[in-house]
Specification:
Blueprint: H1 3-20, H2 26-30, H3 35-41, H4 44-58, H5 65-74, H6 79-86, H7 94-124, H8 131-150, H9 155-170, H10 182-185, E1 195-200, H11 206-223, E2 229-234, H12 239-251, H13 255-259, H14 265-280, E3 283-286, H15 293-306, E4 309-315, H16 328-346, E5 350-355, E6 383-388, H17 390-395, E7 410-418, E8 424-431, E9 436-439, E10 445-446
Parallel strand pairs: 1-5, 1-6, 2-3, 2-4, 4-5
Antiparallel strand pairs: 6-7, 7-8, 8-9, 8-10
Length: 450
């Protein structure tokens, strides 16, 4: 038996022995120690007694010494063990009981590490084993286990973390990371654990906006020499196309002029310069065509273990493979809740791109309604943006109901949902030949009083 097992067994004996005659302390201890953890880490009579205590605490039955004794008799509890235990322990205070709970939790976590490591060794020895897959699965399990252990916290712990963030804001550090665009930053920022959905019809600029946001975040990390990286799952384009298009966007070079060899020397030089910059950034691209949520989680867990991920995302939700979904709505819900869970578990912002159904194009103003966003991630998002470019529809010979100044070179970005900030329409400059967004000089139009 290991030292941690010895400590856990002694802790369980002392904890249960004290709680048996001081049931008033049970609600406090139960808040930090579940019966499942005691059964997993220790087992035996201590686990039986503690489990029955917790059952009575959660049930409609009265928590009392008589009720506890009656319940234990029904499950065949060894009261001789309890009598021997009482002869060798003393009454101890709540801080000591908390320490006992901590010893049990520590041993449970060590057992989980041993279990997952054994599973990884077995998987590594199997025929056709892939190191990346085995490592990814191990890291994902460990990350999920840590989050499950940390998911319930006392308000004092959470409050200390919030105070730390408030102190940083007071000292001048802005809450959340920049999107790379001042006009969007006035509406929202990229906050750890939050899901940002960028939705729209095809050819409105969703991918272009996301690429630039990831470029600017990676550039910010590089310039600040900050320990971090960004990861993008380019399911709709190859990694080569992603980098080529990004380089053309940032260099303000028309990719068609490069492909048909009509670009001048200055354009080639600007493109080469931007490619050199992109190669130096902490930016990773995965171009798996139909990734599952599990695939993306494993990849992120592996990279996050090496260096903290500061931003991740995927293009686009409809390409996430969801097995056994019974409806289109269930498939979308699983995809969006899955990617939100990745960011929430590993603690970084997630940007998810999403298509809107064709019905929006039958309207005069081309703006989506809440029903258009039913399968587009609006419900799961912390922040939801929809993009509409009037120029795209006008170029197709369609009429569109909008202000004249927005009809050429403008993309309208509607921050229609924001759980912790402003909503409103943000007009942005858009150069279709470069697929490039920029801030506009004139002011946005608010939809609320913020």
């Amino acid at each position: 038996m290991t030292e941690s097992a010895d400590k856990a067994n002694i802790a369980a004996d002392h904890l249960v022995g004290n709680l048996y005659f001081n049931l008033d302390a049970l609600p406090i201890v139960a808040g930090v120690l579940s019966p499942e953890v005691v059964r997993f880490a220790v087992g035996g009579n201590a686990a039986i007694a503690y489990s029955e205590m917790c059952r009575l605490l959660r049930s409609d039955e009265r928590l009392s010494a008589g009720g506890l004794e009656a319940g234990l008799r029904k499950v065949g509890f060894d009261f001789g063990w309890l009598a021997k235990l009482q002869s060798r322990i003393t009454v101890e205070g709540l801080p000591t009981l908390h320490n006992y709970a901590g010893e049990i939790v520590n041993h449970a976590e060590l057992l989980k590490v041993q279990q997952y490591s054994h599973e990884a060794i077995t998987a590594a020895q199997a025929d056709g084993a892939k190191a990346a897959t085995v490592k990814g699965e191990l890291l994902a399990k460990l990350s999920a286990e840590q989050r499950s252990m940390d998911s319930v916290e006392h308000t004092s712990v959470i409050g200390a973390r919030v105070r730390e963030r408030l102190a940083e804001v007071k000292a001048g550090k802005v809450w959340g990371a920049s999107t790379g665009f001042k006009s969007l930053d006035r509406q929202f920022r990229l906050v750890d654990g939050e899901l940002v959905v960028v939705a729209g019809r095809p050819s409105q600029g969703k991918t272009s906006l996301a690429r630039m946001m990831f470029y600017y975040r990676a550039m910010e990390l590089a310039r600040a020499d900050e320990d971090g990286q960004v990861v993008f799952f380019s399911s709709d384009d190859t990694s080569d196309k992603f980098v080529m298009d990004l380089a053309c966007t940032m260099a303000q070079v028309d990719s068609n002029r490069i492909k048909d060899r009509t670009a001048g020397k200055d354009e080639w030089d600007r493109l080469e310069y931007e490619l050199t910059i992109i190669e130096s950034l902490p930016l990773f691209i995965d171009d798996t065509p139909r990734p599952t949520v599990e695939h993306m989680y494993f990849k992120c867990a592996m990279l996050n273990a090496q260096k903290p991920i500061k931003l991740a995302g995927q293009d686009y939700a409809g390409l996430i493979r969801v097995d056994d979904a019974k409806s289109e709505r269930q498939e979308a819900e699983r995809a969006f809740t899955g990617v939100k869970g990745i960011g929430n578990t590993l603690r970084f912002p997630w940007v998810e791109l999403s298509q809107i159904n064709k019905g929006v194009e039958n309207r005069a103003d081309k703006w989506p309604t809440p029903s258009d966003l039913m399968y587009a991630g609006e419900a799961e998002a912390n922040v939801c943006l929809t993009i509409m470019r009037p120029e795209h529809y006008i170029s197709r010979g369609e009429d569109i109901d909008c202000d004249e100044k927005y009809k050429t070179g403008v993309a309208l970005v509607n921050v229609g949902k924001n759980k912790s900030g402003k909503i409103g329409v943000v007009p942005m400059s858009f150069r279709p030949e470069y697929a490039r967004f920029d801030d506009l000089s004139f002011e946005r139009t608010d939809l609320n009083n913020y």
